[in-house]
Amino acid sequence: MEIKRNINLNIKKTVENSVCGNDEFHFYVDELTSKDCMPTYAGMADEKYAFDEMEEEFFEFLSRKADGDGIYIRLVYATAGEIDGEAVFELEYGGAKEEYRTGDTDDVLVFEFADFGIKVKGSEVTFGATVEGGCGQTPYFAEFGSDKASEKFISLENPLNRRVIEIMEGMIHD
């Protein structure tokens, strides 16, 4: 499973595809620092532009940031619980909802909520997740399969992560 690839990503189509209609899943694009930290949780892009203002200037702004230290585009919002020995995840993405269940609780981490997305830096796209702390007090991006967070949370052995990667592959546009 490839978690990093070089593509000529169409940022506008990807961002438009990522927007979900649920009020609890806000549209987020974060700027990244050189160490993959997010300067603010909502992101400088959100502070400057709202979804209803997504005009060409907004996408030019994102393209400039992507060519710099990079941006993080949240694509999937997940909540979780455990029912009858199964881990149950509700996944929201691109206006859709999906329930994902697995009895393989040894390889999954049941969390309250999490978001998954892509880091875009130039033509390099990396699949991963937002992780709290670790770089001071700010959230940061951790790629799947790395040692930047809980092994269960971003492991490629985690069946939830394999499903999330499939979803995200369908949401990115080149």
Topology:
Elements: E1 4-6, H1 11-18, E2 29-31, H2 44-48, H3 56-67, E3 71-83, E4 86-93, E5 96-102, E6 113-121, E7 124-135, E8 138-143, H4 151-154, H5 159-171
Antiparallel strand pairs: 1-7, 2-3, 3-4, 3-6, 4-5, 6-7, 7-8
Number of strands: 8
Q: What's the helix-strand series?
A: EHEHHEEEEEEHH
How many helices? The count is: 5
Q: Which secondary-structure class do the elements indicate? A: alpha+beta
Average pLDDT level: 84
- Report the span from N to C terminus: 19 Å
Provide the helix percentage.
10-25%
Low-confidence stretches: 41-45
Q: What general form does the structure show?
A: globular
- Total number of domains: 1
Tell me about the largest β-sheet: 8 strands, antiparallel
Strand content: 35-45%
| C-alpha Rg (nearest Å) | 15 Å
Protein architecture, described:
The chain has helices spanning 11-18, 44-48, 56-67, 151-154, 159-171, and strands spanning 4-6, 29-31, 71-83, 86-93, 96-102, 113-121, 124-135, 138-143. By secondary structure, the protein is of the alpha+beta class. The chain has one domain (4-171). The two termini are 19 Å apart. Mean pLDDT is 84; it is low at 41-45.
